[in-house]
Structure formats: structure tokens, C-alpha cells
Amino acid sequence: MSYTFQDAAQDLEPVAEEKTLSLLDLLFSGGMAGSIIIGVLFVLLFAAVYIYFERLFAIKAASKTDKNFMHQIRDNVAGGNIEAAKIRCAQENSPVARLTAKGISRIGSPLEDINTAIENAGRLEVYKLEKNVSVLATIAGAAPMIGFLGTVIGMVLAFHQLATSSGQAEMGNLAEGIYTAMTTTVAGLIVGIIAYIGYNHLVVKTDKVVHQMEATAVDFLDLLNEPA
């Protein structure tokens, strides 16, 4: 095979190198303002993940109740063994047991007073279940706005560079500053989406526990309304 002039020309052509950029470089190459905002978003992400899993485990623990719990309470109360019912409630560490214990402690009072005591105890249990969940909702709303703030700051700096250079700024530098600034919006949206999904999941889990407490309260009041 003969080596032609065309082959030599092809060998001499420069090979275009693909410019690669890692995720961390992309996130933290936006200058001081961009790095600060990305750092804030990372803190919010850590807080959202921590709150989600801490509340998830707490809600799961609160939802675990012995299936025979109310049957045992019913047998003890119907047999007049109130102390045994109180001891059984103390053994069951759950919101349902604490509501039942509150109702048992009011036996002998009018049903309206018992119902009020159970409702007040239920509000306290719901407050415990929803602890810090509102922070998760705040992160879900604030993170995208913080990310958008970083983008606006990046755009302002890019156009400031264009203005101070009398319109002679290199497009490569401008484009790099703009797409780097956009990463703050992407990061903010990611954090916001994660926090939003976690918040709604916790709300669903909490509602199940609340419905369980309401059903137990109704069963207990029905027990007291049964004829002797």
C-alpha cells in the first residue's frame, strides 16, 4: 500500500479534544457566591434527609401495636379490672396505648369528659408525630428559591463582565459563567423535590397513625357505652 499525500494530511489534522467537567467542578466553579449557595443547599439537603429518616422511624415505631391490645383492654374493663388495663397500656409504648390509658384514667367521669380528655391527648400525640415535619416543608419551598437566587446572581455577574468589557467579552467565558450559574437552580430543584416527596410521604404515614388512634378512641368509647 502506498502512503498518499491525502493520508499524510489526515494525520496532521488536529484531533478535537472533548472538554469534560466533573459534577463537583460544575457545582463549585461558579465563584464565591455560587459556592456559598451550593454549600447552603447541601446543608438543607442533609437536614431534609435527616429529618425524613428520623421521623419515618419514629412514625413506624408509633404505628406498631399489638393486634390483641384492644381485646385485652376490653376484657379487663368489662371485668372491672381497671388496674390490669392500666398496666397493659403502660406495657404498650404507642400513641394508641397512651390514648387508651388516658381514657381509662377518666373512667367514672361523664362520657363527654372522657372524650375531651382523649381528644386532648390525641392532639399531643399528633404534635409529637409531626415534630420537625414543617421544617421539611419549608426546605421544599425554600431550596428552589435559593437555587434561583444563585442563578440570578450568576447572570448579573456575567452581564456585568460583558458591560465592563465594552461588549468585547469572550462568549466562552460568558457561556461558562451562565451554565455554571444555572447549576444552582438545578441543585435547588433537586433538594426541593427530595424534601417535597419526603414531606408528603411523612404526611401519609402520619395520617395512618392518626386514623388508627381515632379508631381506637371510638372503640374505647363504645366499650364504655356497652350495657353492664
TrEMBL record:
A biological process from GO: protein import
Localisation per UniProt entry: Cell membrane; Membrane
Alphabetical UniProt keywords: Cell membrane, Membrane, Protein transport, Transmembrane, Transmembrane helix, Transport
Residue spans crossing the bilayer: 26-53, 133-158, 178-199
GO cellular component, as recorded: plasma membrane
Signal peptide: none
Protein name (Swiss-Prot/TrEMBL): Putative biopolymer transport protein
